[in-house]
């Protein structure tokens, strides 16, 4: 695709409508998505509870960049590019592991957890080890949630930390327990998942289990009265209730919304599935819904946290990693069981993957054309607007990105 064609597509964008086919299917536009969004913004990588001890690490690969996230001295969490400073081999091959020192498998250069080069065997005496530490990756923690940025100069993350931290704090994620993880690979464009998870137009017909738990999800009931009542109760418990709206110049969102009367958790029978989590004393916390584009979604109820990490692998393929966290003191079999804990989001998520795959298949049709969003899809329209703006910015500043 020529640069002029991309400019043309951007000029033809009709606000309030889904995007032109190429934005979902073209490899060239996917290249722009990578350069202008995935390599520039902040990516959710995991939670600190996955790496509780010094030397514990996870790796997260986005495109050609693999990142090592490792717990170092005094609990500090570091992020490094997973490329050896000798001749570039990847250092950690696994998605999770433990290594007090990181040793490259090729010629055994050894790095400390903070990325500094500890040993480089058979190198000359005057070799300057200090200049060959692993390349650092920007990292920020939000109360135990790990975000990284591959950019040399990432966009400002302070507003995200400021707005999301009060919502996450009460779950005490750093001390929590990773109860279960599940990954999916689905045939769709990453933006269709982002769009799907910002509207409930589809919830009534597609998600009977979700609608049974969340008042108003079917768009047929008013939430106003129950919201006033629940907010007063949440406030009295010190829980944050003020939502954080998504603006076109921000890339995050936060809300707390109510479950139906008598529903304690995101579960099939409405009953709690684990002991209250972190600082929560009961099951009256509603649902905390957090988003940080392009790849982070979190829904938390009084007894568990569910995170969704999206990774765009190509224009037509995404990997989705789901993680369920419970209170750090919860014991499997006594305080929760995996099946009950995970069935709600497995069912709901799998319904969504199918919708997102169908959506992509239909967009590939030669007769697809952008369609109008309903008023209840305002948040989708805002996301698409944000996305288009990011591409426009990048295309205008062609010095920072080479157009295909
Ligand atoms: S490439 Fe890592 S030690 Fe040679
Ligand atoms: Fe959905």
TrEMBL record:
Q: Which Gene3D superfamilies match?
A: Naphthalene 1,2-dioxygenase Alpha Subunit, Chain A, domain 1, Rieske [2Fe-2S] iron-sulphur domain
Record's keyword terms, sorted: 2Fe-2S, Iron, Iron-sulfur, Metal-binding, Oxidoreductase
Rieske domain: which residues? 42-148
Q: Does the keyword rRNA-binding apply?
A: no
A Pfam family assignment: Rieske
CDD domains membership: RHO_alpha_C_GbcA-like (cd08884), Rieske_RO_Alpha_N (cd03469)
> Which metal ions or organic cofactors does this protein require, according to UniProt?
Fe cation
Q: Which domain of life is it from?
A: Bacteria
Q: Does the keyword Amino-acid biosynthesis apply?
A: no
MF term (GO), any: oxidoreductase activity
The name on file for this protein is Rieske 2Fe-2S family protein
């Amino acid at each position: 695709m020529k640069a002029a064609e991309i400019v043309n597509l951007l000029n033809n964008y009709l606000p309030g409508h889904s995007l032109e086919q190429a934005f979902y299917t073209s490899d060239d536009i996917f290249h722009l998505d990578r350069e202008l969004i995935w390599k520039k913004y902040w990516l959710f990588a995991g939670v600190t509870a996955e790496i509780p001890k010094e030397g514990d690490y996870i790796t997260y690969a986005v495109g050609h960049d693999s990142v090592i996230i490792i717990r170092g001295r005094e609990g500090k969490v570091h992020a490094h590019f997973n490329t050896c400073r000798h001749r570039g081999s990847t250092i950690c091959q696994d998605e999770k592991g433990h290594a007090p020192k990181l040793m490259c498998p090729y010629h055994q250069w050894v790095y400390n957890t903070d990325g500094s080069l500890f040993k480089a065997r058979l190198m000359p005496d005057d070799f300057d080890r200090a200049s060959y530490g692993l390349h650092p990756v920007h990292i920020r923690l939000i109360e135990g949630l790990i975000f990284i940025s591959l950019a040399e100069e990432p966009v400002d993350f302070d507003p995200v930390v400021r707005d999301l931290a009060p919502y996450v704090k009460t779950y005490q994620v750093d001390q929590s327990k990773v109860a279960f993880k599940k990954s999916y690979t689905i045939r769709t464009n990453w933006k269709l998942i982002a769009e799907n998870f910002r509207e409930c137009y589809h919830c009534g017909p597609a998600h009977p289990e979700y609608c049974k738990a969340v008042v108003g999800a079917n768009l047929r009931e008013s939430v106003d009265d129950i919201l006033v009542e629940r907010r007063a109760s949440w406030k009295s418990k010190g829980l944050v209730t003020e939502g954080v709206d998504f603006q076109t110049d921000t890339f995050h969102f936060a809300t707390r919304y109510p479950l139906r009367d008598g529903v304690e958790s995101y579960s099939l029978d409405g009953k709690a599935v684990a002991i209250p989590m972190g600082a929560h004393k009961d099951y009256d916390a509603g649902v905390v819904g957090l988003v940080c584009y392009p790849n982070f979604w979190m829904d938390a109820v009084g007894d568990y946290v569910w995170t969704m990490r999206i990774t765009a692998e190509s224009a037509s393929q995404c990997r989705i990693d789901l993680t369920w966290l419970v209170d750090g003191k919860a014991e499997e079999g006594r305080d929760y069981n995996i099946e009950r804990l995970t069935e709600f989001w497995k069912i709901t998520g799998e319904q969504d993957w199918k919708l997102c795959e169908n959506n992509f298949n239909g967009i590939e049709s030669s007769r697809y054309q952008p369609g109008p969003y309903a008023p209840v899809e305002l948040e989708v329209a805002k996301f698409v607007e944000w996305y288009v703006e990011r591409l426009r910015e990048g295309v205008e500043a062609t010095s920072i990105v080479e157009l295909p």
